[in-house]
Each structure stands twice: as structure tokens, then as C-alpha cells.
Amino acid sequence: MLRTVTSHLSIDVREPADLFLAVAVADGSWDRSDVLTVRHDDGPLDVSEIKTPHGGRVHRVRAPAGRVVVDYRATVTGRAGEPPVEEADLVEYLRPSRYADSDRLYAFARDQFRGVAADDLLAAVVSWVGQHLTYLSGSSLPTDGASDTLLKRRGVCRDFAHLVVAMLRAHDVPARVASVYAPGLQPMDFHAVAEAYVAGSWRVVDATGLAPRATFVRIATGRDTTDTAFLSSYGGRVLLRAMTVTAAVEGERPTDDGSALVTLR
Q: What is the pLDDT of residue 239?
């Protein structure tokens, strides 16, 4: 499977700041060719790479005031291996987190899926979220957590993923969020999905159903989107002026009715 992904960010840096970019394809057993450039009004900026859990690669840029333009392009051939299963992860991803506040949803989740067999729980949660939430751009706040999404019954991909993760954690199923490039996604953007530890492996699910899971390319992985944000800044004020993301797969795009157990590879 050959996939090509790109991202372009235009950022106004009002005061000197440290920028942390999570736009690069994660390390994996696939063959990857990629290039990241960061340019300022006065010329190229130095970039340092920081390794993060699950193969993630965050790039740090010390940006002076002015316009900063980020361009990333990657070609990925083949597929990554099975995500490793670490005992520490199976503990970490059971706990409530900032945006996947499973402790606040515990009673609702337990009542809603009472009597559902363990083998059927993942499909039941994903189906419920997909049926009861409306995907609507701009309908949620960056500070909304899963409990907010449950009340509003609308959101974007991050909100769908947070609610799935929180519901699963409330049932003692380890679950986490991954940011991905998603060929076939409409509207095209960085995409957030959930992973659940089921049947001895990490399985990727997407309650939005907006793109086939077999085409996803992992970027970053963590407790929630706190750990997977494509841009974080510290030390100064910044404004994201423009962003463009593309993701394509060579040949015919696979279909996905959401029923199969799929590994993010």
C-alpha cells in the first residue's frame, strides 16, 4: 500500500515562541520517505526531533516573531507492524484523562451498555456514538471533553474519539486516541480516532465512519488529544493563519463498513 500525505501550516508568531509540531508520520516498519521544512520571513529555521511514545516524532522549532510556514510531505510504502502491547499502557489507558473523562461518564456508560457481552462492547460503543452524535464542523470548543460532547450530541472527530475512549474506559477497556492522516477523509484534515485493547491487540475504531481505517497513517498516540495536538506553542503568542492537509492512497481505496477488527498499521 502506497500512501502520500502532506501538511502545510502558516503561523503568525506575535512574540518569540517554542513551537512543537506533531505532523510527521510515526516510526514504524513501513518504508518512509519524508521531508519537513520550517521557514521564517528571514530564512529557514532549525528543527530538532523529539521521540514520543508509540513511534511518535515531535519537532521543536524556536521561532522568532514573524510569519512561519511549515511544510511536510511523506510517502509511505507498506504497512507498520502490529502496535506493541506494553503493560504500562494497559494501566495508563484505563485512567480518566483531561478530555476522555471516563470518571464523569461512568454511571451513564455502565447503564447504557448494561448486559452487553464483552465481545460485543467495542462495536456497541462505536455504533452508539456514531448514531447519537452529529458531525458538525465548528460545533465544539477546544476545551470540550467527552462529557461535554455527550450533552451537546455534536462535534468533530476529536469529540467522537474522546467519547468512544471514555465509554470504553468506563467499562475497564484500555483505550487511547491516535492522530492520523486519513486518505478518503471528507472534509480533509488531520483526523483523530480511537484505539481499544481488544482480543490481545490494539484495534482502531472511528465512530465518524468518514474514511476507511485500513488507509490510516499514524502520527501520534496518547491519552487524548492533549498528547496528539498537531501544534503546541509556549513562551509567546501565535496565531494559525492557514492549514492544508492532504492524504491519498495509490489505486482503489478499500471499503470499510466498520464491522471488522482493524489494526492501525
A: 97
- 230 contacts 23 by C-beta, under 8 angstroms: yes
Q: 134-135 and 154-155: which strand pairing?
A: parallel
Give the CA radius of gyration of the chain.
18
pLDDT at 100: 98
Q: How far apart are the C-alpha atoms of 176 and 210, rounded to whole Å? A: 19
State how far Cα 146 lies from the chain centre.
15
Q: What are phi and psi of 189, to 5 degrees?
A: -170, 175
**Domains along the sequence of the chain with CATH:** 2-79+232-246 (2.60.40.2250), 87-226 (3.10.620.30)
Residue among 178, 173, 261, 190 nearest 223 (CA): 178
Confidence of residue 80 (pLDDT cuts 50, 70, 90): confident
Cα separation, 37 vs 70, in Å, equals 6
